[in-house]
Amino acid sequence: MIKEGDLVVIWIDSRRIYLVKVDPQKRFSSDRGYVDMSNLIGKEYGERISLSTGREAFVLKPTPFDIYRGLKRPTQVLYPKDVAYILYMIGAKPGSSVVEAGTGSGFLTISMAYFLGESSKIITYDVRDDTQRSAKKNADFLGLADRIIFKLGDVREKIEETDIDAVFFDMPDPWNAVKSAYDSLSPSGSLVVFVPTIIQVEKTFMSMRDLFVDVHAEELMSREYQLKENAVRPKSIGVWHTGYIIYGRKSLKGN
Amino acid sequence: MIKEGDLVVIWIDSRRIYLVKVDPQKRFSSDRGYVDMSNLIGKEYGERISLSTGREAFVLKPTPFDIYRGLKRPTQVLYPKDVAYILYMIGAKPGSSVVEAGTGSGFLTISMAYFLGESSKIITYDVRDDTQRSAKKNADFLGLADRIIFKLGDVREKIEETDIDAVFFDMPDPWNAVKSAYDSLSPSGSLVVFVPTIIQVEKTFMSMRDLFVDVHAEELMSREYQLKENAVRPKSIGVWHTGYIIYGRKSLKGN
Amino acid sequence: MIKEGDLVVIWIDSRRIYLVKVDPQKRFSSDRGYVDMSNLIGKEYGERISLSTGREAFVLKPTPFDIYRGLKRPTQVLYPKDVAYILYMIGAKPGSSVVEAGTGSGFLTISMAYFLGESSKIITYDVRDDTQRSAKKNADFLGLADRIIFKLGDVREKIEETDIDAVFFDMPDPWNAVKSAYDSLSPSGSLVVFVPTIIQVEKTFMSMRDLFVDVHAEELMSREYQLKENAVRPKSIGVWHTGYIIYGRKSLKGN
Amino acid sequence: MIKEGDLVVIWIDSRRIYLVKVDPQKRFSSDRGYVDMSNLIGKEYGERISLSTGREAFVLKPTPFDIYRGLKRPTQVLYPKDVAYILYMIGAKPGSSVVEAGTGSGFLTISMAYFLGESSKIITYDVRDDTQRSAKKNADFLGLADRIIFKLGDVREKIEETDIDAVFFDMPDPWNAVKSAYDSLSPSGSLVVFVPTIIQVEKTFMSMRDLFVDVHAEELMSREYQLKENAVRPKSIGVWHTGYIIYGRKSLKGN
User: Fold this and answer.
1) Which residue has the higher pLDDT, B47 or D76?
2) Which of A146, B210, D138, D216 reaches 20 to 30 Å from D85, CA-CA?
3) Which candidate in A195, A197, A198 is best for mutational testing of the D interface (most D CBs within 10 A)?
């Protein structure tokens, strides 16, 4: 049963999916009509509701995709396909410790907080105060802020934490922070880096190859399909590029 | 410090990555040389070891990728890119309940057990006893079997559990089990289906569209890169196709 | 030297490329300014001109890409990547004979007329008079209409020509015309088919496999790159799907 | 009717396609059996023949794909998808003049000779004598050598021809030959460059941007499909990378 303060998704159609917090004093509005949120209270998830225009909608329970949709984004964000694969690569599970930089919109940070649960340690660094405030607001809205430690700081100089299970970088010059990651990671810990150009891939690789083993890189592409009877086919236009993912594990080569 | 009974990875090069259980009575062998496992005990993760041939290797801590590599596979398995995205789509977190069919090699099952931790409920169905035994052995080897409930049974007839957070199908005719998934899911719960052909995508979509909302489909492609100074570029040959992923959320449309 | 009646391209930037016929009485206009065409006469190809706004532009010689850009398109057209590959597959060279259906916008027809020169025989069928008129206008504008025979007719019933080197189909139900193609082709002649869905690929294949050999299918994707110093990378958004191409050669299996 | 000296294709299955010259004294052999070529004489194209093992095969007329298959390749060659698109981009038609460097295996050169017919002017440069001899042998075998001018020389120093319609480069450092191409091209002529890495794309672009307009780059990918009843789908493994294609047209910017 939906109650006051719950996060819910109002699903109208595939282009109109909204993440809202149920406030009985407020009204949800869209270009397809509005509904007073007091009407949502007591509904079951999955139920059909009617907007003011008579248009049908559904109230749903938020998923990680809805977190993505609900973010306020001052900066470009990672896409779900990349976040999913990065989470997998990092290998973090309940109890793990992860350091990330930069915070950006907080999408990966928040996704980690969602998936890792309460027992983990998630630290996110950013050099910009305004960016991080905005990410913290996103985490607050989703009720996940208390699982995340936000730090203003430059990982190219230092990562304060040690014995960390995994480090993730989404920043313009990750090669300048690879040594910090190395010092922060526990032996065999994973470093994952996301960059948009091949020149950055090369520079990152060059900075990692003497400290890390199992260094490899790939790019994920998602091709969406149109679902229609007798006409299932790839959508004509779509996203062809987000970025490249580089992975490595800390070795004790130099020791 | 590595000790008897630990699972470790012996990393020789990018094509020679082995997941082994440390048994001081046994010897690890490869085409690049061997090492008596008793020599691994007391090493730190990330340390360099020498094989009998003088060839260098590293002992690493297992990650989800190594689980993938270490599976005995009687059947075709999902790829990490697909497992990563499916885990994300399912949205399962510590405490969630998930039903899966068929078990196959157990790769997704085991990945869920790894990522969801001990507090979750993971049930996997298969119609074939031999397949499931083999998957159970994989889970045992990885120390994750006690987090999984293996059931011999046909989900096209019935899924015994109810109020489940997410259902995943990797089977030839998922459309025949969509109703079972619907009955088993909690309202707004997620159904994720993986199939290799477009005809299956269409049939699955047709069977879902009256019961589920937010139904969509996509295909993930991973393009690997060669990492080499001044010659970073996509590898010439690679995997072009694994399968299509269909997603939907249970609605209460009919109620 | 450019003279009256010449087809020229006015290139302003990568999004503003116009194919025009030089008419000294007319003015070329765009959202970046205009130029009286009389000013183009006597210019050399490749020269810089100034638009009324002071904006720079270039006068260029038309290429096959410009033909694509200059078409009036009542219907969806093939893309250059597909036309290029189809022309290659067909293997038509000066002197060859090719039958095509349907005419559509005439893009392939006109491309064939451009590449094959005057000694070839290009016949294009369509069931719709209005479509074909429009394609003919396109061919007229480009000065290539006299190399093409336009026929109103249904190739599912019959292709009148025989001993044809290659047949190309871009129509909703090519499988209903495969027998006509067979009868029209010379022994070992090529049939090339373009369709947007996999179900059509399967049906086409099923209708071809007893009459043709070397039957295979593929899909071409073009990924465009952003060219910018230190930031060369794939464009974020692009075309992910146009259609599938099926190829086969007429055998005398049944004989 | 097939006669002595004809080039024919012996098609056994999709992996066994052979381009041979009919010599009644010789025998064609494969791992599926042999056939004395004297038996081919008098057959019609498209006819079924029997190999010594009883295995069926077909005699077909060579297409551009068969040229590709029949080349002796001392070096890596362009793929048909790339050659097709390059031919399209170049825009060469009967009567055009084209300069190419390096010759490589001669695949593009020979393809141009095939498609452009006898009235065109095709000049191919290479710095290596052995490579070019081998390419010339390929062209001879295909009966197309007399349409091609082979030149031993370094296009980075000079292209001797002027007023050329299009120039194509497939060489390690095309940026060092861009000025030669410019000097050789007629105004508005096309320069097309093929390179395997992004760093080369960037360098090529930087060398072209002040001399050429309409400079753009793309990458073509071909995804092959398995054709099987009820199981049409992309082949699992395939070619993911050949190279990037850069295009530009000579402007008179500097004049």
Assistant:
1) B47
2) D138
3) A198
